Recover the amino acids of this structure.
């Protein structure tokens, strides 16, 4: 089965056989290297905790709003669709998609901002770098090494989730200098599989945040009518409102938005592959340009959606009051735990990190409700 798949991969796909891992392990005939990576992510403690971590709405707000885990699953589904179309390594795209949010704090971006302020004199906090700490240090499931010992290609895709890394200062401070032992070339472009995971992240949170915002009545369909691309989709589907419920109409609109964005990525990326003369994987890595992109029209649409969601959803007083509470919880917990860390944390579990980084790791790993409960217990 795997031999047939290997023949079907395109010349610019990452092969199913990895370049290697930091620690040598026995191979298995049951799964390729990236299927093993994916399974390690899914079985990790950090992944399970994502089910109780805020996407936009604090996890205690309602059962039907998205959390970090549902978002990650939706990203991976979109990424597999795109990877399959281009005959790429679907398992690698899926793995990066599932892992990309592991480092998020409770209470979403508000929690990250609060923790970064708490850590401003100790190297700061960054959820992307925290993801790397989790998969290389904090997850402890094996006798012979710390972390999940993921493949070099998976690590590369997670490190460069936002493209090649030009400034290593934060990575060096938070992880340590030469942490990756020169196995990662930070200046090279990343694989198409990783680029697909990144753009799938945009597609998923734009479309699904719109759905959650509409269902929570933070804004209405009529307020979206001024956004090009959306106006046509909404106008067409509103004609169905007499025969179908508003919930069903919203679901159909969201499906069409995702389809529109995915189709645009396929068309634009195909043009980019030709324009940049991408013939093989080496060409992908050496390219100075992102290859997996939206068209200019869709980039404009993407920016307008983000601007709309920022104004109408992320800064809405209903959401803001909860996220402000989240900031308060994290700030107070950091101060309280710092006064007596051993009362709360098994310090030995966190290795040789300084005490502030250990407290940061501990709080970043909390779910929303765990953080709230601990805060209430320690008042």
């Amino acid at each position: 089965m795997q031999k047939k798949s290997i023949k079907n991969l395109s010349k610019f796909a990452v092969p199913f056989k990895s370049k290697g891992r930091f620690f040598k392990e026995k191979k298995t005939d049951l799964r390729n290297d990236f299927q093993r990576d994916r399974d390690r992510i899914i079985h990790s403690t950090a992944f399970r905790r994502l089910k109780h971590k805020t996407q936009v709405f604090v996890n205690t707000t309602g059962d039907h709003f998205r959390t970090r885990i549902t978002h990650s699953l939706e990203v991976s589904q979109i990424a597999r669709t795109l990877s399959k179309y281009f005959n790429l390594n679907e398992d690698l795209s899926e793995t990066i998609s599932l892992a990309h949010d592991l480092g998020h704090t409770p209470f979403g971006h508000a929690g990250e901002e609060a923790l970064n302020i708490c850590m401003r004199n100790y190297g700061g906090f960054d959820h992307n770098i925290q993801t790397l700490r989790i998969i290389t240090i904090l997850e402890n499931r094996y006798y012979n090494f710390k972390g999940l010992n993921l493949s070099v290609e998976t690590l590369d895709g997670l490190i460069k989730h936002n493209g090649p890394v030009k400034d290593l200062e934060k990575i060096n401070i938070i992880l340590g200098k030469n942490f990756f032992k020169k196995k990662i070339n930070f200046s090279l472009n990343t694989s198409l599989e990783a680029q697909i995971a990144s753009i799938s992240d945009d597609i998923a949170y734009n479309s699904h945040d719109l759905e959650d915002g509409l269902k929570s009545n933070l804004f209405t369909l009529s307020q979206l009518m001024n956004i090009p691309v959306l106006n046509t989709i909404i106008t067409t589907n509103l004609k169905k409102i007499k025969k179908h419920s508003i919930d069903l109409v919203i679901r159909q609109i969201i499906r069409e938005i995702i389809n529109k964005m995915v189709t645009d990525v396929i068309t634009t990326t195909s043009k980019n592959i030709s324009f940049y003369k991408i013939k093989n994987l080496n060409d992908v890595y050496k390219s100075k340009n992102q290859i997996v992109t939206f068209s200019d029209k869709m980039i404009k649409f993407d920016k307008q959606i983000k601007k709309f969601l920022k104004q109408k959803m992320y800064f809405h007083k209903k959401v803001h009051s909860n996220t402000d509470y989240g900031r308060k919880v994290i700030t107070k917990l950091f101060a309280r735990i710092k006064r007596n860390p051993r009362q709360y944390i098994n310090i030995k579990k966190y290795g040789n990190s300084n005490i502030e980084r250990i407290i940061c790791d501990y709080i970043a790993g909390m779910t929303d409700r765990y953080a709230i409960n601990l805060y209430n217990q320690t008042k």
About this structure: The chain has 17 helices and no strands. The radius of gyration is 21 Å. The chain has one domain: 1-379.
